Amino acid sequence: MNESAFRTFLKRGGRSPRMTDRVVALVQEFADYLHEQDKDLDAATPDDVAAYVAWIEETPKASAKGHLHALGYYYESVGNKALRTEAGRLRQERIKRRAFPLKSFRGVRSEDLGALAAAGIRNAKQMLQAGRTPQERAELAERTGIPVETILELIKLADLSRLRGVKGIRARLYLDAGMDTPAKIATYEPEAFRALIADFVERTGFQGVATLPAEARATVKMARSLPAVVEYE
């Protein structure tokens, strides 16, 4: 590890000296783990990261979240997209968040909420589990009497809500503006994404604040590392 270059990367990203020391130390722990297997950081594979996580979590109640956060920073700094994505995916699996209720999405009809509740679906996580594939969405539409187009809209709102900070109003804003999946957001540069959303708000009078620059950067960055969970075609 080129520690000096890594520290410069972290400083440029606004990390505090204390956090920088912590991140560097955690990456060094992974480097030491790899060294015992005659490997180094730049020769690591996604399987190595997964094995390292499993090794850490052999200890009861231990979590590798902090280690994965640090590894995400490191592999971003050296341009290793595959390992950055894998570290992010494994970390997301370990972050427990309260499931977002469907009723909190703007523009969802009460009758649709009632039909879904009768089918045991009340939050975004349950929605994604029930309608991950086109076939599952068709079956859900038949079971609930909700048009498949509405089911798809709810799936997209739920999918967008996996992005940090994107919930009831933001999910509706991005959906209505055509940025209807994390994968689509990931294809935009932050400034272009922000400009598109700002233009939509101005043109339509959408009741909500347009995406701010820092928010756009964070949203696009997360969209690029978020694993796909929905089959849209």
Folded structure, characterized:
With 233 residues, the chain is mainly alpha-helical. It has helices spanning 3-12, 17-35, 46-56, 65-77, 81-94, 110-118, 124-130, 134-144, 148-160, 168-176, 182-186, 190-204, 213-225. It has two domains: 3-94, DNA polymerase, domain 1 (Orthogonal Bundle); 102-225, no CATH class. It is built from 13 helices and no strands. The longest helix has 19 residues, at 17-35. The mean pLDDT is 91.
Please outline the helices and strands:
Blueprint: H1 3-12, H2 17-35, H3 46-56, H4 65-77, H5 81-94, H6 110-118, H7 124-130, H8 134-144, H9 148-160, H10 168-176, H11 182-186, H12 190-204, H13 213-225
Helix pairs in contact: 1-2, 2-4, 4-5, 7-9, 9-10, 12-13
